[in-house]
Design a protein that fits this description.
The chain is elongated, with a radius of gyration of 22 Å. The protein starts with a strand and ends with a helix. It has two domains: about 1-160 and about 345-360, Glycogen Phosphorylase B (Rossmann fold), CATH 3.40.50; about 175-330, Rossmann fold, CATH 3.40.50. Helix 1 crosses helix 13 (about 345-360) and helix 7 crosses helix 12 (about 320-330). It has helices spanning about 15-30, 45-50, 70-80, 90-100, 140-145, 175-185, 205-220, 235-245, 260-265, 280-290, 300-310, 320-330, 345-360; strands at about 1-5, 30-35, 50-55, 85, 110-115, 130-135, 155-160, 195-200, 225-230, 250-255, 270, 295, 315. Helix 11 (about 300-310) links the parallel strand 12 (about 295) and strand 13. About 40% of the residues are buried. By secondary structure, the protein is of the alpha/beta class.
Length: about 350
């Protein structure tokens, strides 16, 4: 098969990582893999692993982007891919108009993935125009059915995102060299028990709830430190300052490329997103390493915890419950283990996605 995936750019992020993972699986099984995007830091890795990249600024949210429709239609007609897999809304509109302009026998099969619980609007409805829709969780399926009804359920396919168990093995521990460098960078954290909130610093991630919870935990357990791992947009530094003022004991690391090691050495990680998310990649990564997670019981995070670590579920906004559960976890009073095996695996995601490609081609 010849498969083309389309997304705004390849700078980094969960959607981008998933794109490279499917591209890698396609190449490994002898298929032709192409990605269309505006480019970015991940292009070198993509091409180094055997895929082809086509540069097209297809994700810019501007009416001018629609000028790319004839160019994309011409490219599709010349390349004749078997499947066009679209992973974002703006590229979805460009791809749909280009796809519709082709004669039916010359159209590729059209697949789209619903990665997020977007605002309900005509703009977001574009995902339903694909012939087949992949949803990344039951939460995403319910969102689609509730807000954009009418799509034949047989054309909607739930394929969970997956973690690479080889990269995130259960019981993994950082190397001595990494630990030495970490303690040199953050000497105040040596001999402390870390509770980590991973994710970019935005209000949706619930950092203020985290600040309140960790302040209460600190009163009971002096050896515990709250760690915020994630970058902050230069235009939102005031929110970071607000978090620090709420709890001066929190430690901010900024954006990191060694989140695996940080999660592995943490006593626990948390997910306090105040709005439901379609999935929760860092939740799966943490649990796969064997690090317990406490998270608000809604959206994709609630789904993951219900399957892998049920004691980690906290009612939305229940800070008192979160404090009690976290102290119990730190004291070893939660005797239910993390499931070492779970369905949120990279191999499963890749296999199911390639099987879908084969089905729609047939």
């Amino acid at each position: 098969m010849k498969i083309v995936q389309v997304l705004p750019a390849l700078e980094g992020g969960g959607v981008e990582r998933g794109t490279l993972e499917i591209a890698r699986a396609l190449v490994a099984t002898g298929h032709e893999s192409i990605v269309i995007s505006a480019g970015g830091a991940m292009v070198a890795t993509l091409e180094g692993e055997g895929s082809r990249h086509v540069t097209m600024a297809i994700g810019e949210k501007s009416p001018m982007t629609f000028a790319l429709v004839p160019k994309l239609a011409q490219w599709l007609d010349a390349e004749r891919p078997d499947v066009m897999h679209v992973r974002s809304r703006m590229p979805g509109w460009i791809c749909w108009y280009a796809w519709k302009s082709l004669d039916r026998p010359r159209r590729p099969r059209y697949v789209a993935t619903l990665h997020g619980l977007h605002s309900v609007s005509i703009y977001s409805r574009i995902v339903t125009k694909a012939e087949h829709v992949i949803v990344v969780s039951d939460t995403a399926r319910e969102y689609l059915e509730m807000n954009f009804p009418g799509k034949d359920p047989r054309l909607v396919h739930r394929i969970h995102r997956g973690v690479d168990r080889a990269q995130y093995p259960f019981g993994f521990r950082p190397s001595h060299e990494w630990l030495t460098a970490w303690h040199a960078e953050f000497p105040s954290l040596e001999n402390k028990r870390l509770v980590t909130l991973p994710g970019r610093i935005t209000r949706l991630k619930g950092h203020l709830d985290f600040a309140d919870v960790m302040r209460a935990v600190k009163e009971e357990r002096e050896d515990v430190v709250g760690l915020v791992v994630g970058g902050v947009d230069p235009s939102h530094t005031s929110y970071r300052d607000e978090i620090a003022e709420r709890n001066p004991d929190l430690v901010f690391t900024g954006a990191r490329s060694d989140l695996r090691e940080i999660l592995a050495m943490s006593a626990a990680s948390v997910s306090f997103s105040i709005r439901p998310e379609s999935f929760g990649r860092t939740v799966v990564e943490s649990l796969s390493l064997g690090t317990p997670v406490l998270g608000y019981d809604h959206g994709g995070v609630g789904e993951i915890l219900a399957t892998v670590f049920p004691p980690g579920r906290i009612a939305l906004g229940d800070q008192t419950g979160a404090v009690e559960r976290l102290i119990a976890l730190l004291d070893g009073e939660l005797d239910e283990p993390i499931a070492a095996e779970h369905p949120f695996e990279l191999d499963t995601m890749c296999r199911q996605t390639l099987e879908l490609y084969e089905t729609v081609c047939a």
